[in-house]
Amino acid sequence: PVLSGLDLIKKIKRYNIVLTTIAISAFAEQNKIDSALNSGFDYYLTKPIDSSKLAEIIAHCIQHESI
Q1: Residues 6+ apart with CB under 8 A from 17
Q2: d(Cα 57, Cα 67) in Å, to the nearest integer?
């Protein structure tokens, strides 16, 4: 990979691309979560992924897209 996830999301946001993003990482430390969210990710999930939490995020996104 040429860019880290944080670098990529910053680049995407600079172009004003409307895209809901989820950072997925094994890191569960609050500073890593804050860094990802402050960089522009909308959500942050840790591995192993909680499928009910992912489903909740998807449902929330679908609900807000249809408005």
Answers
A1: none
A2: 16
Cα–Cα distance measured from residue 44 to residue 9, given in angstroms and rounded to the nearest whole number = 13
**Domain segments of the chain as ranges:** 5-65
Protein fold of 5-65: Rossmann fold (3.40.50)
Helix (H, G, I), strand (E, B) or coil at 21: coil
Q: 20: helix, coil or strand? A: coil
Residue 20: its pLDDT value, please?
92
Residue at token pair 């890191």? 27
The yes-or-no verdict on residue 17 having pLDDT over 90 is no
pTM of the model: 0.84
Task: Tell me the pLDDT band of 66, cut-offs 50, 70 and 90.
Answer: low
